[in-house]
């Protein structure tokens, strides 16, 4: 199956880590600051208009949303709550922080993290905080600078380079790309990398694990 993402199916929304599936299938998580374009990126990845909810009100995703992929639903996409939106009660923000932090630190089936950032405002303090949660248990990291259609190609290249340098300063290894969900630019690059991650992490996959994909630009 060339594009299993098109067959992604919603399974559940979890408010606690204990509610997540217990089987050993690999997961790829999507994280991002509220209104960075995470839902649009997920929908573009899967070729679906409303797989992940897109809202004019940031911070709408309040649970860990789980989507299973074929074959047999062993593999999953995980949509983590958007972080950093101010217009929610402090108790809700604290819950999101605990939920996301615990997932990134402790989830053994996590095969890699896709961090979504608005290309016009990458590497905010909140993005850096999320990256710190990866340190105790490093996983493959792919940074996607979304809304690339909002800037010129020259500016997109500058932001990609600047983000790469900041990640290197933090001692983090990552692949990077730009993406426009509106124009579907960079979608195939993202699909290809995530399939490599899933194949490498799946204990029942045939063949030897594949190496990380090179850094790409959208």
Verbal overview:
The protein is globular. The chain has a single domain (4-201), classed as P-loop containing nucleotide triphosphate hydrolases (Rossmann fold). Helices cover 31% and strands 19% of the residues. The protein has a seven-stranded mixed β-sheet with strand order 1-3-4-2-5-6-7. The protein is α/β, with parallel strands linked by helices and 218 residues long. Strand 5, helix 3 and strand 6 form a beta-alpha-beta unit. The chain contains five helices and seven strands; from the N terminus they run E-E-H-E-E-H-E-H-E-H-E-H.
Strands side by side in the biggest sheet: 1-3-4-2-5-6-7
CATH topology: Rossmann fold
Gross geometry = globular
Mean pLDDT: 85
- How many domains would you count in the coordinates? 1
Count helical runs.
5
Order of helices and strands: EEHEEHEHEHEH
The CATH architecture = 3-Layer(aba) Sandwich
CATH class category name: Alpha Beta
Low-pLDDT ranges: 54-59, 206-218
Biggest β-sheet: count, sense, barrel?
7 strands, mixed
What is the tally of beta strands?
Answer: 7
By helix and strand content, what is the structural category? Answer: alpha/beta
User: What is the helix content?
Assistant: 25-40%
Rg calculated over all Cα atoms: 16 Å
Q: State the end-to-end CA separation.
A: 24 Å
Beta percentage is 15-25%
Assembly level: single chain
- The CATH homologous superfamily is called P-loop containing nucleotide triphosphate hydrolases
